[in-house]
Amino acid sequence: MKPKREAISKLRSSRREEAQTSRESEPPHVGCYSFERGSRRAGKPALLGLRLGRAPLALLVAFTVAGAAVDESKLPPPAETKIEFARDIKPILDRCLRCHSGDRPKSNFRLTDRASALKGGENGVAILSGQSAKSPLIHFVAGLVEDMEMPPPDKGAPLTTNEISLLRAWIDQGVPWDEPSANNRAAPSLKVTPGLSWTTVRGNAAKFRELEWQPVGWNGGAEDFQLQQRLADGRAVVIEGRAWRDDYRLSLELRKPELGFTRFGFEQFRKYYDDSGGYSAAFSLGRDLHLDIGRAWAEAGLTLPHWPRLVVGYEYQFKDGDKSMLTWGPVLPPTGNPRGIRSLYPSAKHIDEDTHILRLDVSHDVAGYHLEDNLRTEFYRLTTSRTDALFVLPGQTKPAALLRVDEGQDHVQVANTLRLEKEVADWWFVSGGHLYSWLDGDASIRLSPQDGTGQPGAGSAWSGNRILLNEVSQVFNFNSQFRPAKPLTASVGVQAEWRRQEAFGDADFLEVLDPNDPSQNVSAPAVLRSQLDQTSVEENVLLRYTGLPLTALFAEARLKQDEFTQFKEQDGGPHDFLLGTEASTAWEEFRSGFSVSPWRRVSFTGQYKHRDHRTDYDHRRDEHPRGTPGPGYPGFIGDRRIATDELQARLTTHPATWLKTTLTYQWSTTQYRTTTDATSPADAFNDATPGGALTAGQYEAHALSAGVTLSPFRRVYLTTMLSYQRTRLTTADNGNRSVAPYRGDIYSAISSLSYVLDNRTDLVASYVFSRSGYGQSQQADGLPLGIDYTRHGVQVGIVRRFSQRVTARLQYGWFDYREPSSGSFRNYTAHQVLAALHVTWP
Amino acid sequence: MFRRNFILGVGLCAVTGAVLLSCSTVERTVVVPVDIPGATFVGNGACYECHTNFVRAFPFSPHARVRVETADLKASTGCESCHGPGSKHAAVGGGRGQFIVNPGKTASACFECHLQTRAEFALPQRHPVAEGKMNCVQCHDPHGRDILKPARGLAMARLNESCAGCHREQTKPVVYEHEAMREGCTVCHQPHGSINAKLLHQPDPNLCLRCHAQVQGPGVRPGDLVIGKVNHTLLVSRGACWASGCHTAVHGSNINPHLLY
Fold this sequence. Notes:
The complex is a heterodimer of chains A (about 850) and B (about 260).
Chain A: H1 2-25, H2 33-40, H3 56-67, H4 85-94, H5 114-119, H6 136-141, H7 161-172, E1 189-203, H8 205-212, E2 217-230, E3 236-244, E4 247-256, E5 260-273, E6 289-302, E7 309-331, E8 342-366, E9 369-391, E10 401-425, E11 428-451, E12 459-485, E13 488-512, E14 525-545, E15 551-572, E16 577-599, E17 602-623, E18 637-656, E19 659-676, E20 692-710, E21 716-731, E22 742-756, E23 761-773, E24 788-801, E25 806-818, E26 828-841
Helix pairs in contact in A: 1-3, 4-7
Chain B: H1 2-23, H2 44-48, H3 52-57, H4 79-83, H5 87-91, H6 108-111, H7 115-120, E1 125-126, H8 161-164, H9 168-171, E2 176-177, E3 193-194, H10 206-212, E4 226-227, E5 230-231, H11 233-238, E6 252-253
């Protein structure tokens, strides 16, 4: 090794002198900060970027040995023309940028601007201005250095003699670079699309807002905007977002290559809800229900070369507003017949949810290992309040009694994941990791009975104010991927998980008999407890074979064994009970299939999946009330099994460049089986069951979809998707006429058309259609909740370019929704006009 | 008849006009994702150069199941099927948004293959993906790194990890849980879209009876419905099981084991 070291040292010394000479003879580059930095590094040895996967020292040795023997006479002569960078050189360098650019260029050698190119990479200077014959860059692109050809043989075709001559002339003429440099400050660029729309609705406006995700009336602002400013030294500032009514986004990013970045942002959108409960026009809350959902974030990251990548972040997530619920209140019939009671009265819940998240992410590649650690601490706070109707008297439109339910929860959660990846060999890749999560929090709940006016009323006033919650989980994971032979890929994975969840709290099941006389209240204090210990192991195996011509075969198995011990108790109160259960769950999922492309423009895929999920329960203690043998509920469920079979097929054809078709079909069936223990007949209703197994539910679905993308002329683009779905679910309802089988069809169509009318004008159109037939007809015996509806959405528009900087869009939309199954009170028809202007500057 | 002929005539004129216009010289052509003007397919190998971790893990991906390397139908299932042809992206040295499609911003790339999912996002109740307020990668990991991560990363600190990131209220720990939560949110909900409120598979008692039905006792008349030891015949006639006053705390309760309130 000693002679090689000497050769390296000698070469470095030689290159240092040449580089110094080159710097001294180079004309000053005014206003280029990086050039100054490059000058300070001019004493580094010269070596161009290295190929992936080679150790720098080995390549240095290779270069040294080969470089010492470079025969410069083999170089083509420099071109004799006056070089124009954009015309002669840039097309050549563009081929190099694939590797020598970006945040992490190969060998830290960047060819994106003059200063970086002259500075060289982590192994030294590659371009000696004025001395093309001595420049390593020329040696490598000319293939004079064995094993150091640029581009590498497997990364692209070698440069032609003419291209090398041009590069030589470029270097000899002082490396002119008349393109705006990334290191120079550039003028800011701005893109903004201001717009204004007006929507008018005839019919149920609340339903329109809910289904179309937009407000009624005016809407406007900026559909999107982006301001980008490139500063000196490669730094950049990017501000982008949108500011539409009820829908905002703003993000700000500052970045500097090889240093880091900071990002800030805020976004929020609004989800609208119908306040009518959805079934009867007679009842409405008369409220504007909506929920604002959003987040704000700030993060800073370091991307220093050869240092771990580090990101520190903070995020705030929130939900605030009122949303509709499905806890519709009972409306009493005029006849007084209890069979006529229907839960129709709408309900809403106020939500105030805040989550603060602190984040620390570190990742690094060292000695062939990829290490990643993610630490996350979450502070969560939730308060909710909902008011449900307890009953609505016959002929009334407002409830006579209400129940308000207030809940709150706070918790802190800390979670950390550590991952390790290693490519052991070209054919063997392994990874492993560990997750630890810890949660500690408390919760509260309070029920407040009210009369129809919202004043305190008689009824259940339960409360739990000090409910403590704790959860700890750990997960270990190991995976390995093999490629024992080229056409065969195999991977195996094992994941083990342990989780403990504990809850403990006091409650008072207070019954208010007379709201004006607290002395008549009946208090029933109780202690609530629960604990869950869960251990599980999951195994994954995947095989993929591509040895058959034009075909890929795959088979997968995912297995999971779950054991858990659960303890639930209520000590005191009206629901005094104790339940101790041990259970085991077996999950199995098998999937196999193929993909074949027998002809140039056709591919066909098919797969079959079987999934089986079975849980066996052993109720060791079942007391209800405590000390009295059960069975409680669901303590008498012995086992449950859910088995699914599924077939999928997809045919894709691309018979011409202007036509692509896709056809998919999916069939699936699921069987739900439940086994229960026998129950005692000694109760008030004499509703005993002998126990045993039954098919609780049977589900079957067919889904057929077809997609066509058509562009018969250069100026026309049409894409259309059609879908048909048919499902049926029957359950073991003992012939109960209130529970009708849930079955029906859904038709969907989505189409969009773009037409280039002329060089300045486009016509655009889109159409969305869906229709369902799940209507039920058991009005006499129950509430037919299945939906029949038809929905259309049509949008047509014209896009006109007034100049390279200004484009205008004018658009008209028509929306129509019909739902006869709920008496058509949800129907609406809406018209919308939108005008927008897209401006870019400069 | 006149009206029909009139419509037919107008239609023919429109088609003829479109064809004639199309034959004239227009510099521009319609380009929509996943196409990238002027770019060609380069294959997964080129992507490996910079996006090593993603490409290396690709064989774990569900997308890898149907990838045929030797297929003539280029980029049908590789990186470029979702990100668009990559030649220009590679030529400029990569970079965010540099001649490359980011399906994380728009779902159109995903909808090219997942037709049924696209149809589900057009149903009345849906997550707002088509509206641009959400995207596919918020819930799905298309690169297949999920099984490489311990329990799929930090999000799995909770059950039902994909949903819990936004729906903490429904997935938070409680004293009395609903065991269905341990089987996953999708047991009851259709995450992409549904015709029913709250993205439910079924809007009525059928949803619950799939698991909670039982063999009826000899004293139970046909048409009556007992669940546990409670005769639910009248209760199910009112509507869904989670209606007011009944099992309103379907995701779990902090005060009642039967999930009342």
